[in-house]
Specification:
With 215 residues, this protein is α/β, with parallel strands linked by helices. It has a single domain, classed as Rossmann fold, CATH 3.40.50. It contains eight helices and six strands, in the order E-H-H-E-H-H-E-H-E-H-E-E-H-H. Strands 2-3-4-1-5-6 form a six-stranded mixed sheet, with helices on both faces. Helix 4 packs parallel to helix 5. It is a peripheral membrane protein. It comes from Pseudonocardia ailaonensis.
Length: 215
């Protein structure tokens, strides 16, 4: 990403959101931070070491992470597109399922398994990297996720989240970084974030928007 070359990106405590159009690089950046921090590229904790299809970018190798003193109590990298593979690995490894709601994620709907993860596997004072967690969640599910992320943040956890969800972006106190067309990163207020503007524009006058889109 051109916007990161030779640059220091400070991720403060609490929640940092990444927003941008498809292909802007937000998921690539979350993945790069994850691999640079020692996570498996397809997701899971640092103990997961499987590969279904290696497709990660080399950006993680170019990043230098500087961490504050202290050790996280818990860590996890949630990648919406490969969580099925993580669920399979959980079964293959015979991991204790209490941390995932008492059942294999394969026994729950996609959205339910995401919320089980947030509720049972994520703990205070953790480090969590999430790539488009809203992909499996209903509106109510996103609200439940927002409440849980807020609870964990108040308990000392740190999140880096790539998202298109205006609901998640409404989390009080979160920092929103938008990736522009040139790959640059800019802090934006909630009202100016791309997903918020797009949803508001549609909901304000859906008929006009549809006329423009559909002729």
């Amino acid at each position: 990403m051109a916007g990161l070359r030779g640059r220091t990106l400070e991720l403060g405590p609490g929640v940092t959101f990444l927003v941008g159009e498809n292909g802007s690089g937000k998921s690539t950046l979350v993945e790069a931070v994850a691999t640079a921090a020692g996570f498996n590229a397809e997701g899971g904790s640092r103990n997961f070491r499987f590969a279904t299809r290696a497709s990660e970018s080399a950006l993680g190798e170019a990043l230098t992470l500087v961490r504050a003193p202290g050790k996280e109590r818990s860590t996890f990298f949630l990648r919406a597109e490969t969580f099925y593979n993580v669920a399979t690995e959980i079964e293959n490894l015979g991991i204790e399922l209490d941390a995932y709601g008492g059942v294999s994620p394969h026994e729950r709907s996609h959205g339910q398994s995401f919320l089980d993860l947030l509720t049972h596997r994520f703990h205070p004072r953790g480090l969590y990297l999430l790539d488009e967690p809203e992909a499996a969640l209903s509106t109510q599910g996103q609200l439940a996720a927002l409440a849980r992320i807020d609870e964990l943040t108040r308990a000392g956890s740190q999140f880096l989240i790539a998202t298109h969800s205006p609901i998640l972006l409404a989390l009080p106190g979160a920092r929103i970084l938008e990736i522009d067309d040139g790959g640059g990163l800019h802090t934006v207020p909630y009202d100016d974030a791309l997903p918020v503007r797009a949803y508001r524009g549609f909901l304000a006058d859906p008929e006009r928007m549809l006329r423009n889109l559909l002729g």
